[in-house]
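S2.1 Query sequence (MCM7)
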Amino acid sequence: CPSDVCVRNQTKGQLHMQTRASRFRPFQEVKIQEMADQVPVGHIPRSMTIHLYGTLTRSVNPGDVVHIGGIFIPTPYTGMRALRAGLLQDTFLEAMHVHQLKKQYNTMETTPEIQEAIADLKSDPALYARLANSIAPEIYGHEDVKKALLLLLVGGVTNSRKDGMKIRGDINVCMMGDPGVAKSQLLKYITKVAPRGVYTTGRGSSGVGLTAAVMRDPVTDEMV
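Output structure tokens follow.
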């Protein structure tokens, strides 16, 4: 207890939060990093911690390309952490505005010209091959690979059966081949076209980063 009476009497006890007298608001901590095409060769992408409050929470998902405006402030330390920090402090950005640079499929607006073009494509018997050839047109060939990537972009319908089994509509694609056959270029093109995509390599990611890890959340002190 920090009161003067407890300090003089050296009273030790456990404090309990009074939830009825407390005020709560939504909070989310996210980390953003540089785009892969903006990072110099051989360098690690720089990252920044972002704090979101109120209606801004859950407005950013992994793989989104965003512009965030806010207040750049140092992380407030208390207790022993403040003594250990010394003259150096971590910083974060308190977000005030989030602007999505890539739109989701359900938020895209179609003009009459686009609707007319879609109607013409529906009647095209070679629609599947035509759409596949439009993926990375600067790369010649690889028709089967482009068709598989097209199915990956379009996706399917998630099925929920009566017995509780859930069949997801999305698929995974594993591309294997000799060096220099444009595997990376095709993947980079997909990340630009898809509403959400993250391009990474085995050298730039650890084994834990590519799978999963159990770690302690520094904000809530919970295991996540």
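The beta strands are 27-33, 47-53, 66-74, 91-100, 159-160, 166-167. The radius of gyration is 25 Å.
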